[in-house]
Amino acid sequence: MATFESDAENLDNFDGLVEEMNIEVADNIEGSSSAYVSPIWKYFEKDRRDETKAKCKICDSFHNRSGSSTSNLIKHLKAVHKIDPGCRKVTKKVNASANKTIVVKRKVDTELDRLYVMWLCHDLLPFRTGESKYFQKFIAALKPDYVIPSRTKLSQCLVPELANEIQEKLVTILEQRDVADVVLTTDAWTSKSCDNYEALTAHFICKNFVFRSATLGIAKLDNQTADGHVKLIEKLVNKHKGLMERVTTLTSDNAEVMKSTCRKLKISWFGCIPHTINLVVKNGLNISDCANILASIRAIASHFRRSAKATALLNSEQKKLKLAEHKIIRDNETRWSSVYFMLERFLEQHKAIYNVLSDLKSDLAFPSLSDLKDLAMLRDYLKPFQEVTTVMSSEKNVTASSVIYLVTELMRHATDFSVLHEDKYKVTAAVAASMRVSMLERGFPSYASNKILLLATILDPRYKTAGLPNDEAVQAAKGELFRKASLLDDSNDGIDEAVVELSSSERPKSIFDRLDENRAIANQSALICAGSRHEVESYLTEPTIGRHEDPLQWWKARQDRYPRLSILARKALCIIVNSVPCERIFSKMGLIITDRRQRLSHRKAGLLGFIAQNLQILSDEI
């Protein structure tokens, strides 16, 4: 952004600004005068009734001369009467100081326009914001000569220009050599205007071990088949040269069409772990005894949400009982872990709730003492699922390495609960048993044999082999790590097949040349294997770090010690196992395409969402 400290500095920088903005300042033409009269008036006369018209003296026809322009009159003479009036272009004498001020003003206003559209897009505000008379008064008080861009200018110029600026920066970032493997997440959404949109995000770890994300695009999805998804994903990815070759995995919801899409794209697929866990929890809570108790709690929560009187009495009771003055929570089917939070709040406030319902003589069914005990146990049982959902929903931290450990622990938790509490807490035990069956049906045990997840787990210094469930998984993870490390070529150790001297054209060929060549390559392979094995063994003997520490910072500090494994760590730990980035995009899209903005075109809506998600990229260093 240009800054201007004084008028003197503005004038000094005039030449540079003129050159930067491609504005030409004309010199005074010799012989020109403000009293100059065009020869055209030998052939025309002004219309006294209408100053915007002029009458041809030859054919008596009238012609437009709005803005005092004589262009139409000259064209008429040349085209109809074949007369060249001999008019010459006159450039008025320019006041250099005034022009310098104009250029500076244009420079400042252009930057203000840019900041204005950035603010509108970031805060998801409509283009009509600038038409508010109070907003106009506010701007007039700050800078009286600033003209707020119109809706047309915003829509047709400023928004596309800002989107192009972000796209160019994004292309530069993704085409860097240190961006190795890239993983994608995608999800679909239906707007209020019944248009289907698909969002695509990219995630990668840079050479300095910083986890970065970017939204590649938000576009209308016309064809919801696998072919339609493939076409849209390729269109968004191919804006970045060579990016498709670096894409390793795609994470989406558990729809079969997305699995088919990944097969067609020839990349690995991961289902959204938090979404899968939420489906498991919903399945367990659907058993009749549990569903009946939860239905009564939902009815009570709904009553307090719509009754001002009940809410006021609840606040009074909370003060009497010295309880936290919290509102009652009702679960939301689309929000993960919302049943757990509803139970937690209800049990926290159940005494105050009971007193209020008694005072109101409400006919709402309040849970019995035994039901309250079951609800307390159900809350405790659901807490680990809520914790795992929170951990797995992160889009800025490493998550793939936690999948095997956390999924294994959830299955163990469900098994233990269903056995230990089968007699005393039958409802919770039944929920646990149902959820365990659901986890088996959804393939939770297979995570422990997934090579990608095994590699991510063993390369996370928080877990290593301690995060794996059994010896079989440990051996599989070590084998995969040795295999991957041996395939990498570490240029720091001088291990490069390109430097092997093969037969030279400067000396006579020998019958033993092929033997020497094969022996040199075999010796290199042995050195590579020895080097990679040493790295792996040294890494595995190091102590693990705390679970709250950052594994990426650990690798950053040791990438010189483990050159091969640090490359593998960047590849494996960048995998994101949730579709949360796209979910958050569509939360914003829901604020862009509202009841009052349903006429917004899908292309414009996509651009606004793209800008809102990627504005931070403009301030990031490349």
UniProtKB/TrEMBL annotation:
Keywords: DNA-binding, Metal-binding, Nucleus, Transcription, Transcription regulation, Zinc, Zinc-finger. Its main location: nucleus. Pfam families: Dimer_Tnp_hAT, zf-BED. It is found in: Nucleus. InterPro entries: HATC_C_dom, RNaseH-like_sf, Znf_BED, ZnF_BED_domain_contain, Znf_C2H2_sf. The keyword Cytoplasm does not apply. Coiled coil: none annotated. Residues 35-82 form the BED-type domain. This is BED-type domain-containing protein. The lineage of its organism: Eukaryota, Metazoa, Ecdysozoa, Arthropoda, Crustacea.
